[in-house]
Amino acid sequence: MKEENKGKITAIKIFIEKGKPPVDVKMADCTLDCGLQQDRYAKGGERQLTLVDGAVLVQIKSSAAKGLCTQRFNANIETENFDVNAVCPKDILLCGDVEFEVSQAKKECFDQCDFRKNNTRCPLPESVLFLKVKKSGKIKINDKIESKL
Q1: How far apart are CA 25 and CA 47, in angstroms?
Q2: What separation in angstroms does the CA of 27 have from each of 15, 64, 96, 124, 137?
């Protein structure tokens, strides 16, 4: 049986326009089989939203080493105290009144990245989840996020 995995949302970002920074919001509407309302990536499919462990972002920003993704990767949801490595594809996550399904755990690295070229470990790929909205609703900062057991 899986152990309890609970954390909280510390940031929500909506990507409205290509080339522009994401907009930080305190609350967002998630639409079934689509993604975050107003997000330019809310087009359905397997990667409707991205979730990242916020502690890893802090680690990356304070590191002298810079990879390709560490400079340009942004996620819709940042979390605290949620173990992304304890989650597998098809797992259900509960957050606010929304249900997410994990469609992919971990992100791919790019061959052009300095971390990959130098055979150096980058913590980012292991700290990202791609999600699909399975039940519509609202999420907000400080909402609990947990794996459905």
Answers
A1: 20
A2: 14, 33, 10, 25, 11
Q: Mind listing the pLDDT tens digit for each residue in 39-67? A: 998 999 999 999 999 888 887 776 666 66
3-state secondary structure 66-129: CCHHHHHCCCCEEEECCCHHHCCCCCEEEECCEEEEEEEECCCCCCCCHHHHCCCCCCCHHHEE
Q: Which residue's structure tokens are 């400080």?
A: 142
Residue 81, Ramachandran bin (φ over 0: left; ψ between -120 and 50: alpha; else beta)? left
> Can you give the pLDDT at residue 106?
83
What confidence score (pLDDT) does residue 149 get? 66
Q: Other C-beta atoms within 10 Å of 23: how many?
A: 14
| Beta carbons of 8 and 143 less than 8 angstroms apart | yes
Query: In the prediction, which pLDDT does 55 show?
Result: 87
Per-residue pLDDT at 24 exceeds 60 = yes
Q: Residue 18: which H helix or E strand, with range?
A: none
